[in-house]
Amino acid sequence: MNGAAALSGLWWRGFRRLPSTHHHREPAIAQRLIDAAAAEPDELLKQLGTTSEGLTTEAAAQRLSALGPNLVAHERQQSIVAELIGRARNPLNFLLLALAAISYVLGDKRAAAVIAVMVLLSVSLAFIQEHRSNQAAARLRAMVRTTATVLRRIGAGQQVLEVPIEELVPGDVVRLSAGDLIPADLRALAAKDLFLNEAVLTGEAMPVEKSTAAVHSQRDAPTDLPNVCFMGSNVLSGAGTAVVV
Asked: Are strands 55-56 and 147-154 parallel, antiparallel or unpaired?
C-alpha cells in the first residue's frame, strides 16, 4: 500500500468510527472540516484518495456502498399508532376526559358521553389532517431531485456528469456555478469570484467570498473557514471546483 492509499485508509476508518451520538459527532466533524481547510489542495486530494480529475466510477460506487447516501439526517417517520398517540397527548384532551369522568360519576351520563365524543372527534380529525399533510409533503420531496455537476474518470478520459446529490461521496470533485446549491460540505480547490449565500446557516445576509488558500490561523467556528462551502448554502456568483469532504 502506497502512502496516499495509507492516508486514505486512515481517513475512511476515522470517518466510519465516528460515534453515532450527536454530542460526540459534532466536534469530530468540525475538526475534520478544520483539518481539510488547513491542508493544501494537493495534500487533501491525496488524503481523500482522489485527484483533481475526480474519482473513477468504480471507486465512487464502492464508497457509496460503504458510507451510504449523502443525505441530511432526519427523524424516522412515525408509525400511524405513534402519530395517533402523539395527537391524543394534549393537556386539553386530558382535562376534557377528566370532566367526562366526573360527570359520569355524578350521574350525568349524557354530558359525559358528549364530552367523550367531542374529544374523539377532535383527535380523529386532527390526526387525519396531519397524516394526509405528512404524506403529501413526502410525495413532494420524492418528486424533487437535486443534482450536482461532478467530474468522474471513466476509462482513460474524464467526463462531467450530473448525479443526484445523494450519490456524492467524499473525494468527489464538484463544479460550482451561479445558482447551484452546495450539495455537500466541500473544500474549495479553485475559485473565481465565488460568492455564497450562507444565510440559512449563519443568518448573515451578506454574500461570503470563498478562496482556495489553506487556513492555518485559529477560527472560532467551522463556519468561519473561508475555503469551506457548507451543504445547504447556494452560489450567488462566480464559479469554482471543490472536493467533497
From this structure: parallel
Q: What is the pTM of this model?
A: 0.64
CB 88 within 8 A of CB 81: no
pLDDT in tens, 32-89: 888 899 999 999 999 999 998 999 989 999 999 999 898 876 656 677 788 878 888 8
Distance between CA atoms of 135 and 139, rounded to whole angstroms? 6
Q: List b or e across 180-208, with b for residues whose CB sees 16 or more CB atoms inside 10 angstroms.
A: bebbbbbbbbebeebebbbeeeeeeeebb
Residue 114's CB is within 10 A of a number of other CB atoms, namely 13
- Report the candidate in 16, 44, 59, 34 with the shortest Cα–Cα distance to residue 151: 59
